[in-house]
Write a structure and sequence with these properties.
230 residues, alpha/beta, six-stranded parallel β-sheet, 15 strands, DUF1707 domain-containing protein, DUF1707_SHOCT-like
């Protein structure tokens, strides 16, 4: 639902005339909703026609009434499987990455926004979500790779939907699948031309350390034998 802005220090009324900026703001909300799958392309076209024909706030308001307001999407879930997905105060909150004849890397503990955009041209990038936290329950990563490559690493407990397209290139969709109950949903979409986007499932780093420690202890137990003193 679109909030009415103030004009000249007083709240706007439904009968007040809308500006071009007001129409563009509503159009942006609709485009984001279509990108999240809340609207079909046909619905988006119909509503955009109504947006640009609207003259007052009363005509704009119904067009987003059934959509969540900006900044009011459900928060990332609380821990439900031993992993805390909630944002970390003070951690980086990158909104995108660009690699033009160079590269970028987003890894470690960082807060993933609702929408993250990546672009690689004659370059590359790496987006590692194994230690990432999430600002909201669903995150969309949009990737454009032209004669370049982007690698996305997702832990096993995230739900992943890969919806990209590759032409004379590749957009790996094998990582799509469900995650742990209550885990964030990551949607990876975009386009690769003469380039590639690789999406890989990997164990979380702390899980790897735990398994390595368990294997070490098992090996020590086998060397010591059953009669070794405890």
């Amino acid at each position: 639902m679109t909030n009415l802005p103030e004009r000249a220090g007083r709240p706007a009324t439904p009968e007040m005339r809308a500006s071009d900026a007001d129409r563009e703001r509503v159009a942006g909300v609709l485009r984001d909703a279509a990108g999240e799958g809340r609207l079909t392309l046909e619905e988006l076209d119909e509503r955009l026609d109504a947006v640009y024909a609207a003259k007052t706030y009363a005509e704009l308001e119904p067009l987003t009434r059934d959509l969540p307001a900006e900044g009011t999407a459900p928060p990332a879930p609380a821990p439900s499987s031993g992993t805390d997905f909630r944002p970390v105060r003070g951690a980086p909150s990158w909104r995108g990455g660009i690699g033009i004849m160079s590269g970028f890397r987003r890894s470690g503990v960082w807060n993933v926004p609702r929408r993250f955009r990546a672009f690689a041209f004659w370059g590359g990038g790496k987006i590692d979500l194994r230690e990432a936290r999430f600002e909201e329950a669903e995150a969309t990563i949009s990737v454009l790779a032209v004669m370049g490559g982007v690698e996305v690493i997702v832990p096993d407990d995230l739900t992943v939907h890969v919806k990209g397209l590759g032409i004379m290139g590749g957009f790996d969709q094998r990582a799509s699948g469900p995650g742990a109950p209550g885990a964030p949903v990551v949607v990876i979409r975009g386009f690769a031309f003469w380039g590639g986007v690789g999406v890989k499932r990997r164990a979380r780093k702390h899980d790897k350390r735990l398994r390595k420690e368990m294997r070490r202890r098992e090996a020590e137990a086998q060397i010591e034998g059953p009669d070794a003193p405890s």
